């Protein structure tokens, strides 16, 4: 960490050049003797990436940024705030602190936070930034989190861990056994020192396979942001032996879509089926990731179109964790029937259909966009159909 980067003139230069082409800056040269040009470029690139993802940091003066890879890997403020509402108590230790977004928001709910970061440079950066952010109840330790946990040797209300998903060659990994530290190996240690353990994992993990690897899982939170799954959050509770609750959330600008169910409810539920009625429903990605296909039908009392289509329908409109449409027309899938509708521009979606969106556009000569939504799917009679819809 170079303190000269926090020099007023250097900070002014960084802020003035956030929209400047980096290559032009390098060609022109950056005339600060005490700071290497590459360090300033690194600050500019990292700060630019933080504008939308980390607005509190972006809008706070004299924030020191790590390299852009750290910014890419860190939680967003939005998901950090979500995780914070899940915790309470006097103490939490973050064993893999990183850039410290999650710890910052945990500190708004819990009296004392311990932030562990093995990288000396990053630990210094985070310590400095917390002072700028006035996060006075966070203690930063430049130490391996597991070593710190053993050395401190005390009970915490919570342990939080976001294992590294990069291997020794810096390649991305996602299986628990490939991440560091290995949660499967250390989960007993974690539950020894805390009644509650929160684990953040890749959204690529298979829920059932991971449940077999972890013990005492009380809750799984599938967190999506604007219909893109960002995180899987696993809540482990000491001695918990009951059924795991799955909570899906799709965080949107104006509202959050949620749907919750117990893990065994999906296999125990039997969906109803129907031909398309007046309204059509498409689940958001957090629900799809959860595999809540039958239980969605039974809990909301809406039938599916087909066992494998994962589209739902109803006569009267209902609240739904996903997109809702009014079905304007129901067509068989053939070129002649579609040509009569004279639709040249539409949003195309396929569900359980043999052709891709690209193939359909080419075959039917449909451009992307507009206010018409076309769903190509298979109904309960195994017939290929087109549903012409408007969004509601």
Automatic annotation (TrEMBL):
<protein>
    <submittedName>
        <fullName>Uncharacterized protein</fullName>
    </submittedName>
</protein>
<dbReference type="Pfam" id="PF22013">
    <property type="entry name" value="PG_1098_Fer"/>
</dbReference>
<dbReference type="InterPro" id="IPR054168">
    <property type="entry name" value="PG_1098_Fer"/>
</dbReference>
<feature type="domain" description="THUMP-like">
    <location>
        <begin position="322"/>
        <end position="391"/>
    </location>
</feature>
<feature type="domain" description="PG-1098 ferredoxin-like">
    <location>
        <begin position="279"/>
        <end position="321"/>
    </location>
</feature>
<dbReference type="Pfam" id="PF18096">
    <property type="entry name" value="Thump_like"/>
</dbReference>
<dbReference type="InterPro" id="IPR041497">
    <property type="entry name" value="Thump-like"/>
</dbReference>
<dbReference type="InterPro" id="IPR029063">
    <property type="entry name" value="SAM-dependent_MTases_sf"/>
</dbReference>
């Amino acid at each position: 960490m170079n303190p000269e980067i926090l020099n007023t003139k250097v900070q002014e230069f960084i802020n003035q050049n956030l929209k400047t082409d980096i290559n032009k800056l390098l060609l022109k040269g950056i005339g600060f003797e005490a700071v290497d040009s590459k360090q300033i470029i690194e600050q500019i690139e990292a700060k630019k990436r933080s504008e939308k993802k980390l607005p509190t940091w972006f809008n706070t003066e004299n924030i020191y940024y790590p390299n852009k890879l750290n910014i890419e890997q860190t939680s967003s403020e939005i998901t950090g705030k979500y995780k914070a509402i899940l915790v309470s108590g006097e103490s939490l230790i973050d064993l893999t602190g990183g850039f410290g977004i999650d710890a910052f928001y945990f500190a708004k709910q819990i009296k004392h936070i311990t932030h562990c970061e093995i990288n000396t440079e990053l630990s210094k950066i985070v310590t400095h930034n917390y002072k700028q952010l006035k996060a006075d109840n966070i203690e930063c330790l430049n130490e391996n989190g597991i070593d710190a946990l053993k050395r401190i040797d005390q009970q915490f209300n919570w342990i939080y861990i976001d294992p590294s998903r990069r291997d020794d060659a810096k390649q991305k990994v996602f299986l628990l056994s490939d991440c560091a530290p290995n949660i499967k190996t250390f989960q007993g240690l974690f539950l020894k020192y805390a009644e509650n353990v929160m684990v953040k994992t890749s959204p690529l993990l298979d829920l059932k396979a991971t449940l077999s690897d972890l013990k005492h899982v009380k809750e799984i939170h599938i967190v999506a942001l604007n219909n893109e799954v960002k995180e899987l959050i696993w809540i482990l509770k000491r001695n918990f032996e009951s059924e795991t609750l799955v909570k899906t959330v799709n965080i949107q600008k104006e509202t959050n879509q949620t749907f919750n169910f117990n893990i065994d409810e999906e296999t125990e539920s039997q969906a109803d089926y129907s031909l398309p009625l007046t309204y059509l429903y498409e689940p958001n990605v957090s629900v799809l990731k959860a595999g809540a296909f039958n239980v969605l039908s039974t809990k909301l009392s809406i039938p599916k179109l087909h066992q494998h289509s994962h589209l739902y329908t109803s006569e009267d409109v209902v609240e739904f964790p996903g997109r809702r449409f009014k079905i304007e027309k129901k067509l068989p899938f053939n070129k002649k029937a579609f040509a009569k509708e004279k639709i040249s521009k539409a949003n195309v979606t396929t569900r359980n259909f043999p052709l891709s969106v690209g193939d359909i556009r080419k075959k039917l000569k449909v451009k992307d966009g507009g206010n018409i939504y076309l769903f190509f799917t298979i109904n309960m009679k195994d017939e290929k159909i087109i549903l012409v819809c408007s969004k509601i």
